[in-house]
Design a protein that fits this description.
The protein has helices spanning 5-52, 57-63, 69-88, 92-100, 108-121. It is mostly helical. The protein is built from five helices and no strands.
């Protein structure tokens, strides 16, 4: 079966378009990865300060930053993940120190606490 020239051109266009779309998607995800890694590194530095300090106001000073609701939730989720991984790494003392240095009025206390309970129930 022979394809006419027009049929070949139309069959190639979606392929090029699909390749362009995939290239665009790849670029977006590379940028996403870069943004996530930057966020993680910055948050890990803050967490390290908290667990290496005997002064709980260290985290409170960090919390004085003006954060919108989305930023606050992202930070809380990252602390939750960090506590989880510290516990998986058998670093209970660091996990406890991180958890205990979170200001009591922070909703992250309940989140981390429930995660700890879930982890030990499993």
């Amino acid at each position: 079966m022979f394809l006419h020239r027009e049929d070949q051109e139309t069959s190639e266009v979606p392929t090029e378009s699909a390749q362009q779309h995939q290239t665009h998607l790849d670029s977006i995800f590379m940028l996403l990865e870069e943004n996530i890694l930057t966020f993680m590194k910055n948050e890990l530095k803050k967490i390290q300060k908290v667990v290496s300090s005997d002064y709980p106001e260290c985290l409170e000073k960090e919390e004085e930053e003006v954060l919108d609701e989305e930023q606050r939730r992202s930070r809380e989720a990252f602390v939750k993940i960090s506590v989880h991984f510290l516990r998986r790494m058998k670093q209970e003392d660091l996990a406890e120190r991180l958890q205990s240095n979170i200001p009591p009025d922070s909703s992250i206390v309940s989140i981390v606490g429930s995660m700890y309970a879930d982890h030990h129930a499993a």
